[in-house]
Design a protein that fits this description.
mainly alpha, 199 residues, two-stranded antiparallel ribbon, Fumarate Reductase Cytochrome B subunit
């Protein structure tokens, strides 16, 4: 028996899709800045990239405020309990028709593997993208005040590595959205807010 739960609040859905659009914009313009293709031109790509970065930083600030004022930050507290069970499900169980070992609720939206993934994103990848991106944007202001070895190339490399880490996360995230009751069930939940869960 399937139960319909209202899981994702309006701001969560807005934050999710706005963040996705901005990250994809930055990935696309970032590839153009690196010379992977030519569509907008270097200067325009840099301008759009910087605008999207500031918009994303602003969105993250609002999201952090929202998470702490609503108590939703608790959804991201990591746990190792049953991580192995969830991992085995995604590696093997999903291909053998096994039931999902985690039951989503309004108070526990993310399974243990998701919580660990989001922790890595929020505490490692995002801060390094912020710091390296701002370092690139304001390189002229700090280049003479840092120790040797921390030059433009090093900061650019860090930014690129973290961008690829974000791209990998995005690809895996999109793939996992297709693993619900139907290939679009999780995507529909992030549009409507309602998730169908097994009772």
């Amino acid at each position: 028996m399937t139960e319909r739960l209202y899981v994702f609040k309006r701001f969560e859905r807005f934050w999710h899709w706005a963040q996705a659009a901005l990250i994809i914009t930055m990935l696309l313009t970032g590839f153009e800045i690196h010379g992977s293709y030519h569509l907008l031109g270097f200067q325009k790509a840099v301008g759009i990239h910087a605008f999207a970065a500031w918009a994303l930083i602003t969105l993250w600030v609002f999201a952090i405020f929202w998470h702490f004022t609503t108590g939703e930050w608790r959804q991201y507290i990591p746990t190792l309990k049953n991580v192995d069970v969830i991992f085995r499900y995604y590696v093997l169980g999903i291909f053998t028709g096994a039931p999902h070992p985690y039951r989503i609720t309004q108070l526990r939206k993310h399974n243990p593997l998701q919580r660990l993934s989001y922790l890595v994103i929020k505490l490692f990848i995002n801060p390094l993208i912020w710091a390296s991106g701002l370092g690139l944007l304001y390189y002229q202001a700090w280049r003479d005040a840092v120790p040797a070895g921390l030059d433009l190339a090093a900061v650019a490399m860090l930014h690129t590595v973290m961008a690829f880490a974000m791209l990998i996360f995005l690809i895996v995230h999109v793939y996992l959205t297709t693993t619900g009751h139907t290939p679009l069930a999780h995507i529909r939940a992030m549009i409507t807010g309602y998730e169908d869960v097994d009772g």
